[in-house]
Amino acid sequence: MKNLSSWIRSTLFLLIATSLVAADNPTVTIYNSNLGLVQEPRTLELEKGRQEVSVTDVAARIQPATVHLTSMGKGGFSLQEQNFQYDLVNSSKVFDKYIGERISVITENTGGISGKLLSRDGSILMIQNEDGSLRLIQTKNILEYSLPELPDGLILKPTLQWVIESQKKGSTPVELSYLTEGMSWEAEYILQLKEDDESGVLSSWITLENNAGATFEKAKVKLVAGDIQRAKQRRRGGPALQAEMVTMAKPSVSEREIFEYHLYEIDFPTTLYQNSIKQVAFRNPTEINYDRKYTFEHSERQNAEQENVSVDIVFENSEENNLGMPLPEGVIRLMQEDTDGKEVLVGENNIPHTP
């Protein structure tokens, strides 16, 4: 990769705030290891010459060093500088920026007070009056703060910012791609045991989790099974996240090999909402045969006769057993019908990626 600094010219340039408008649905590839690859076709409105371009609708947990912007149309541009701004606005940062600046407050007892903000430690606000005297105000008595404007350097959303040299004016199709943390997936299996104690119905779901800090509308979703080799990264803290459940009904997932991994693709566009969990039907319910295996491990303890016998349900992943397919890593749960017709959970376990 060329040294970006070698592209920077020493001439004045025009700063034009523009935006990127989505031109097509994004493609999101999700890995098992808290990682997602986002690829978004967009249209970039450019002026001829050097300019600043900003976009805010990106994942909050983006890995800035992986951002790649590619021109997809005729006419070129050179990317001279790239910045990722993530100093999001909050009350503490606003007050930190206003130390030494004039603010106004309204209190319960004294009404409006104006002066230079010297400090704010959470419980006490220190303001300097115009005559140089100091006023200490308990923050619990303050009804309202008035600040002239949002301080420089604070932003409302994570923002990617580029300095671009364009050879022409007009619309330029591009692809924006980047890696982001906060995305993962796994399989969920349910084996419904039948009364004959030798067969059951195996169904499965794919669970997608998006805690990356952005919503991806009508995305083409791919899933890579396996732990890819990654270089060590300097980790940054992410926001506190809550999840909600979204379920889909019809199995529609195709599978193929890529490199040394299995890749699964959801066959319809789906929206990955920020801070959400989505479940997509994976395999059609399949009747399989199984064996029940009892295991007793004897120890030398005095009360060895009180030790429990473990019970395992064992089935073969073969075409003869209506399977013979890769089974992604996940959790398998055993369910059995009670006398009232209601199913009861009788056990669960993790399975690794299984050929």
Descriptive terms for the model:
355 residues; mainly beta; nine-stranded mixed beta sheet; six-stranded mixed beta sheet; 1 helix; 25 strands; flat
Provide a descriptive summary of the structure in words:
The protein is an all-beta fold and 355 residues long. Helix content is 2%, strand content 52%. It has one helix at 91-97, and strands spanning 20-22, 27-31, 35-46, 49-55, 68-71, 77-85, 102-107, 111-120, 124-128, 134-138, 142-146, 159-166, 170-181, 183-193, 199-210, 216-225, 245-247, 253-258, 261-266, 270-272, 276-289, 291-295, 310-314, 330-337, 343-351. The strands form five sheets. Strands 1, 2, 3, 5, 13, 16, 18, 19 and 20 form a nine-stranded mixed sheet that branches. β7 and β8 (111-120) form a beta hairpin.
Shape verdict: flat
Residue-averaged pLDDT, rounded? 80
Low-confidence stretches: 1-23, 235-250
Largest sheet: 9 strands, mixed
Measure the end-to-end span.
Answer: 38 Å
Order of helices and strands: EEEEEEHEEEEEEEEEEEEEEEEEEE
Strand and helix map with partners:
Layout: E1 20-22, E2 27-31, E3 35-46, E4 49-55, E5 68-71, E6 77-85, H1 91-97, E7 102-107, E8 111-120, E9 124-128, E10 134-138, E11 142-146, E12 159-166, E13 170-181, E14 183-193, E15 199-210, E16 216-225, E17 245-247, E18 253-258, E19 261-266, E20 270-272, E21 276-289, E22 291-295, E23 310-314, E24 330-337, E25 343-351
Parallel strand pairs: 2-16, 14-24, 17-21
Antiparallel strand pairs: 1-3, 2-3, 3-13, 4-12, 5-13, 6-12, 7-8, 7-11, 8-9, 9-10, 14-15, 15-21, 16-19, 16-20, 18-19, 22-23, 24-25
